[in-house]
Amino acid sequence: MIPAGWSTLDNRTLVATALGYTGVAVAAGVPVAIGISGGAGLGVALAWVLPFAAALIVLGTAADYVRLLKTRYRTGEERVELHTGLLFTQRRSLARERIRTVDLTANPLLRIVGLVKVKIGTGERAESGQSTLTLDAVTREEGDRLRRELLRRAEQGEAPTGEGSLAVLDPGWIRYAPLSFVAPALGIAAGGAVMQVSEWFGLQKGVIAWVGDLFRDLPLVAMIVVLAAILLVVGVIGSLGLWVEMWWNFHLEREPGGTLRVRRGLLTTRSISLEERRLRGVDVVEPLGTRLAGAARVDAIATGIAQQQENEKTDSKTLLPAAPKDIADRVAADVLREPVAPTAAVRLAGHPVAARGRRLRWAVGSALLLVAILAVLGWLLTDVLLHIAWIAAVVTLPVAVLLALDAYRSLGHGITGEYLVARSGTVRRSTVALQRGGVIGWRVKQSVFQRRAGLVTVMATTAAGAGGYSVLDAGQDQGLLFAEDAVPGLLSEFLERDSR
């Protein structure tokens, strides 16, 4: 019997649970059945596999049924409460005034039955999930009702103006998907998966022999290049599919009451909401590949966006996927309600030449270390690694120098209106525009090597985003004066000014 005022999760969750366990049973049972049938026949294999599969589905669904019976929630005037548990009952609640995010997610199984998972959070970096409540799962209508109700803060007549669509998906943006490091990473993962699966079935030596026979007429270096190209093509295809899954139907809009909402996803749909009053700035991110193509993405810097848990997506702060730079600048300006994006409105001050030397030394040293490791392993193990070592030297040393010079050119900082701006990075160039009023302190760091070079790193600490944003390797006086000018008085008592 459910007490008055309390609600329960939707029973259709059991259908999604049963389908999910069926998929697990099939994925695990088919390889096992194939392995058993090779020696004992198909009938014996099914006799072993089917009972275990049925037990998995029935027991998993039954456990979820018990969870549904013992879970209830309610939204009151001051708190949101969730009670769950059979042997050990958990009673948790969040004060409504502390709620910062209400995100809706629906994987393909939940979409089939018309349900969504609702995650209500305060944005605090608390352990054991104490800053969030998760309702898994409710109807789409109930999820939308909870999102609107829990994020409705502005009093009538005080809601910010300018509601409506800020950005929608342009399918042409998919051209930027293969330009990130995701493509080669997916290609390498695919190659590793082939080798792992072949090992499970005892076919790994056969696969290696087949590849050797296929390329037996090619020199070793040519074979390595061809295999790398094949893996890269596989990675490109994978990155395109991943982009479509993540960003299809993307829509960024501003809702009444001052809430930014991002909707996206093909198979798994996501709806992420962010109160504007929690926004402290934006981060225009330009990974190397997309930057060369003239594109950038826009991330939010806001309180209430906690560090991501290990099992969560890391893109919940992204307001715009990689898009042409002029569109990214326009969206950044619209999000901040500025005529021009602060990240593009100021000419950034450069950093001393000593900062260039530091980047050159780090880049060249890292490349030489890689080459040395490969050479030593090649001398000890196989000539193949010696070939890879000299190829790495020819390729990585010039690339390291170019990246170091680009990293130096990317360094910069400035102040425009209510924002301080800091830029750094080359493989991932980041231009941060942070509200000066959102800075709660400064952290000044100077290593022994920086001290000898007359450089300093100053970090603006904030309760939003990553918690701190740095101006890297600025001149000592340059960095300290920037911090004082950006937030007057915050650092002044620690500064000693030259009386001359």
From TrEMBL:
<protein>
    <recommendedName>
        <fullName>YdbS-like PH domain-containing protein</fullName>
    </recommendedName>
</protein>
<keyword id="KW-0812">Transmembrane</keyword>
<dbReference type="InterPro" id="IPR014529">
    <property type="entry name" value="UCP026631"/>
</dbReference>
<dbReference type="Pfam" id="PF03703">
    <property type="entry name" value="bPH_2"/>
</dbReference>
<feature type="transmembrane region" description="Helical">
    <location>
        <begin position="12"/>
        <end position="36"/>
    </location>
</feature>
<feature type="domain" description="YdbS-like PH">
    <location>
        <begin position="408"/>
        <end position="467"/>
    </location>
</feature>
<feature type="domain" description="YdbS-like PH">
    <location>
        <begin position="71"/>
        <end position="149"/>
    </location>
</feature>
<keyword id="KW-0472">Membrane</keyword>
<dbReference type="InterPro" id="IPR005182">
    <property type="entry name" value="YdbS-like_PH"/>
</dbReference>
<feature type="transmembrane region" description="Helical">
    <location>
        <begin position="362"/>
        <end position="381"/>
    </location>
</feature>
<feature type="transmembrane region" description="Helical">
    <location>
        <begin position="218"/>
        <end position="244"/>
    </location>
</feature>
<feature type="transmembrane region" description="Helical">
    <location>
        <begin position="387"/>
        <end position="405"/>
    </location>
</feature>
<keyword id="KW-1133">Transmembrane helix</keyword>
<feature type="transmembrane region" description="Helical">
    <location>
        <begin position="176"/>
        <end position="198"/>
    </location>
</feature>
<feature type="transmembrane region" description="Helical">
    <location>
        <begin position="42"/>
        <end position="66"/>
    </location>
</feature>
